[in-house]
Specification:
CATH architecture of the largest domain: 3-Layer(aba) Sandwich
Order of helices and strands: EHEEHEHEHEHHEHEHEHEHEEHHH
Number of helices: 13
CATH topology of the largest domain: Rossmann fold
Number of domains: 2
Strand order of the largest sheet: 3-2-1-4-5-6
Strand content: 5-15%
Helix content: 25-40%
Number of strands: 12
CATH superfamily of the largest domain: Glycogen Phosphorylase B
Mean pLDDT: 92
Length: 392
């Protein structure tokens, strides 16, 4: 009997697992295939400990540590992750390693796999997004990867221009589109428990230090003027603590309902309900440009964290210029927010509410990425792709 193909799927965050879960389920249903789930990084951090939401864990790789934050702390965590993944891969001997996106967990796994001679598949490569260090890490993973699984034609073209072989680039659509037609709006009881919000805030760190407090305060002032607001906690990037402090202060002042963690399925139902009820997602998450577009929910995208990323017509953008100008005044903490900036965000929310939600379109595929990815991983010989050479 032929040995089952062993495919290691790497996940480091709650949001990322929401995109990978259907792919793992599809692999599990594929004959002669054995999927492995390697959990790393933010999954292991308090208070959420989202590793407990995974159906199983075949490898556990500790990276970030509670209380140790900042860009250089992430660099140390990255080194810890490369070593941890190398040991896990040596033990489990996967034929393929699969990573998604641009976070340090994916970069650590990609580095260990590529240097270790294991075939690496990269989902959502070729996208652009400034993030903290996202733009560099995503494209670095592309150069480490052997099989490219971009979400859109535009991203595929970018990968080919980076010197990757066209025959190794397959547009599969975004995993975010899987099952999107089956998403139901959040039920009344849960919706009311969350404050029946008209706005949902999801503002992630951008690694700018003191600017994080100002930017978060500006968003709060624009969003909470008598409007029921649900504020979701940010991911575990540098300056997370600053944003969490503002959220806690807003909660004590009655300006929002905070939520530390929402499982991916419920998050999609929140966006569905928000879109149907005339609400808006506000912040700087890729979910505003991808999942929200898929679920016909308007988005206000603030700042440059998603700069360069493809965006559908559900997005109203607010540029980062006012925050940068304020921070150059020599008194970055003199005021909690910049009035002109607050007005810009408020106007953008008004514009987003007025969008025609029935006219939203997106470039992220028909929702069969799981089937396409599983088929490629099972039909392409990993041993035939591990030697790389630029085509130019």
């Amino acid at each position: 009997m032929t040995r089952a193909r062993r495919i290691a799927v790497v996940t480091g965050t709650r949001a990322e697992w929401g995109l990978l879960a259907s792919i793992v389920a599809c692999l599990d249903a594929t004959p002669n295939c054995e999927s492995l789930i390697f959990a790393a990084g933010a999954h292991l951090l308090p208070p959420a400990h989202t590793i407990n939401e995974l159906p199983r864990v075949d490898g556990r790789i500790e990276m970030q540590q509670p209380g140790k934050t900042g860009r250089l702390a992430d660099a140390v965590a990255l080194a810890r992750g490369i070593e941890g993944f190398a040991r896990a891969f040596a033990e489990e001997q996967p034929d393929w390693v699969v990573v998604l996106g641009d976070r340090i967990e994916a970069f650590a796994a990609a580095s260990a796999a590529s240097v270790g001679g294991i075939a690496l598949a990269h989902i959502h490569g070729g996208d652009r997004a400034e993030g903290v260090a996202d733009e560099a890490m995503r494209h670095a993973i592309t150069k480490l990867a052997h099989l490219h699984l971009p979400a859109t034609e535009q991203s595929a073209e970018r990968i080919v221009r980076m010197g990757e072989r066209p025959e190794h680039v397959h547009v599969v659509g975004s995993p975010a589109a899987i099952g999107i037609d089956q998403v139901q709006p959040l039920d009344d009881a849960t919706w009311n428990d969350l404050g029946a919000p008209e706005l949902v805030l999801l503002l992630h760190p951008t690694g700018r230090g003191e600017d994080a407090e100002r930017a978060t305060a500006e968003t709060l002032r624009a969003a909470s003027l008598g409007t029921p607001t649900l504020w979701l906690y940010p991911n575990h990037d540098p300056d997370r603590e600053t944003i969490v402090e503002v959220i806690e202060q807003a909660e004590s002042g009655g300006d929002c309902v905070p939520c530390a963690h929402v499982p991916h399925a419920i998050f999609r139902s929140v966006l569905k309900r928000l879109g149907e009820s005339g609400g808006v997602l506000v912040g700087n998450s890729s979910a505003g440009l991808i999942e929200a577009a898929l679920l016909h929910c308007p988005t206000v995208d603030i700042g440059n964290r998603q700069a360069g990323r493809e965006r559908a017509n559900n997005v109203v953008h607010v540029d980062d210029e006012q925050t940068r100008l304020a921070s150059k005044s020599g008194h970055p903490r003199e005021t909690a927010s910049h009035p002109k900036r607050v007005n810009q965000i408020t106007a953008a929310i008004t514009d987003a509410r007025a969008l025609d939600r029935t006219a939203f379109t997106h470039p992220y595929g028909p929702g069969d990425a799981d089937v396409r990815i599983a088929a490629l991983l099972m039909t392409i010989d990993p041993g035939g792709v591990v030697r790389k050479r630029n085509v130019y």
